[in-house]
Write a structure and sequence with these properties.
binds cytidine-5'-monophosphate, 3-stranded antiparallel beta sheet, alpha/beta, disordered N terminus, about 260 residues, about 45% helix
Length: about 260
């Protein structure tokens, strides 16, 4: 696997600063990470996209989600390119994800990729295969890394670690709104995955399906033996349940300034 446009495997003598933002899906970390990276002019790592790509490959090729060797090999062989977001102005998820020359950005964001991504993410050999790739994103002037284990495993020396969380209801609601917006914009044809036909016309049922899926994913991410989703001991926890994304950004920027990071 390589990430030609976004990172180089060249090591820097003095590593660039890292801001790690971890937390469950729907906590707002993706939006906050991309806005922070844009505000600071730093690089951005959306580590979840890597697991989503492998989940997508496994689905398409019929690779068993527990087949450690096949998953790690698929990850090593895939050519994954991220659009470099250095200098991006603002907005959520500005990254385009290109796999073996094909833009898969919309494909990996589909609801039905969430469970496969979470399943393959529990496989230690795959996490090992993705480890060095993630570390190679660390380049001057700095990196904002978004994921589940950025502050605990991949960048334990990050200068700032934020653990962003929210209630499962709030996260499911946000995910529902996000998928609806994507559907409206035409980037998704089946926002609720295989459940769509069953719940057509019923927003409440769709929301309930998303809530159940969110809980299942959280449970798997929190209880897996390798790199479980948990706050680093030195992370600052922000509960965004009652906060707007602007409120969260203001809190994150205050922490950035307090630590003397950025320009
Ligand atoms: O953040 P996102 O929803 O894109 O992540 C998809 C899945 O990838 C998560 O449910 C999680 O299982 C896995 N993941 C992970 N470690 C990371 C980032 C994501 O295990 N650092």
């Amino acid at each position: 696997m390589s990430t030609p446009s976004a990172c180089s495997t060249r090591r820097t003598i003095s590593p660039a600063d890292v801001i790690a933002i971890d937390g469950p899906g729907g906590s707002g970390k993706g939006t906050v990470a991309s806005r922070l990276a844009a505000a600071l002019g730093w690089h951005l790592l959306d580590s979840g996209a890597l697991y989503r790509v492998v989940g997508l490959i496994a689905l398409r090729r019929g690779i068993d989600f527990d087949d450690a060797e096949a998953l790690a090999e698929a990850a090593r062989k895939a050519d994954i390119a991220f659009q470099d977001t250095l200098g991006a102005m603002s907005g959520p998820s500005p990254i385009r994800v290109v796999v073996d020359g094909i833009d898969e950005t919309d494909a990996i964001r589909r609801a039905e990729i969430e469970q496969p991504a979470s399943r393959v993410a529990a496989v230690p050999a795959l996490r090992e295969a993705l480890f060095a790739i993630q570390q190679a994103f660390r380049r001057p002037p700095g990196l904002v890394a978004d994921g589940r284990d950025m502050g605990t495993v991949v960048f334990p020396d990050a200068r700032l670690k934020i653990y962003l969380t929210a209630s499962v209801d709030a996260r499911a609601r946000r995910r529902f709104e996000q998928l609806k917006q994507r559907e409206a914009s035409g980037s998704l044809r089946a926002p609720f995955g295989s459940d769509r036909e069953n719940v057509a016309g019923s927003a409440a049922a769709a929301l309930a399906a998303i809530r159940a899926s969110t809980e299942a994913r959280d449970e798997r991410d929190r209880t897996r033996p390798v790199s479980p989703l948990l706050p680093a001991p030195d992370a600052v926890t922000i509960d965004s349940t009652e906060m707007s994304i602007d409120d969260v950004m203001a809190a994150a920027m205050a922490l950035v300034q307090e630590r003397g990071l950025g320009r």
